[in-house]
Predict the structure of isochorismate synthase.
Amino acid sequence: MSSPALVRPHPVHRAADLLAAYLPGSFYYSSTTGSLLADGVHATVRAPHGTRARAAAEALDAASVLGVGDPVVVGAIGFRPDAETSLVVPAVVRRAGAPGTDGPVAATGSASWSITPRPEPEVYAEGVRRALALIDDGELGKVVLARCLELTADQPVGVPALLTRLVRLNPAAHAFAVDVSAPGDPAPRTLVGASPELLVSRRGHEVVANPLAGSLPRVADEAENRRRVAALLASAKDRAEHAHVSAQVAEVLGRFCTDLDVPEPTVIGTPTMWHLSTRITGRLARPDDPGASALALAEALHPTPAVCGVPVERARAAIAELEPEDRGYYSGLVGWTDASGDGEWVVTIRSAEVCDRTVRLFAGAGIVAGSDPAAEVVETSAKFRTLLRALGLEVSA
């Protein structure tokens, strides 16, 4: 079963041209299914948690009536129910095939950086220990704890070059750049990243979700990588963590789908990590129902235990208590939905918010019984490497 294609039968643009045409303020999204570049704002979609899909459908209907050709809603939604959102119907949309893997990698520039961990790694490890105490007391089955790096350069950060490097260095990822500027920001703010995790895609009757949970860092030695892949598949702790996620995703999609297929997990790799992965597929019972659009499915799924925990509300409360930094858009969702309800939304991980000279990036780890605080620090450090490599930094985090 395939993901929804961003590509029309005869795309008139080249993927490389769309990537080269991106400028801050545009919306860019690409994956192995295609590329999309959107510019301008025909309408802004504002609605509270749980009603965004309906508001998006109404905005798409209104755009169609006003003659907007092939309207889509694009943007991002933050982690918390009351978090920021940036959803719009753009004025112009261009599509192309998937980005190639042989294009030029933009230079990183010559910026000098200062890096501030928020919190310090030892404070994060103490937060993991506090989370384990909640798990031992039976309050939680799992909680995902994140930490932040704040990077400050001696010159403005070039978002187009950063996006290009993310696309080229992570060819299998879902790459994105979204304007998430808000009142009070000292300069335009852009959410940019290369997520490996598909929250949900929809094409007609077909639905696909690909939750990831249970991870180990990737290393240079291929023999050691093979050992780590085998260890993930054999790990009772990691498989239990993954089962929390895949079961919840299957339960939610089961409300909308027939013929749901939930296979045994496999291991997928990114340039920096190995992840347990389950590709869940299903067939929508009522694809014409506006309540079964790609965005509606994404709202129903978010937040999965891959970024929050089990049970959800207690995990959210623990995150608010144990994480000193507001996640913002990190571990939310980013993507697109069209007037037919088709679309693709991914989990906002391996991402950063860029504002002038400042880059804020987050990484999280799933805490379950048996988690080791020091190992979770190592895991989050490895997850930072996607953005750090794209920025030209190879540092210990």
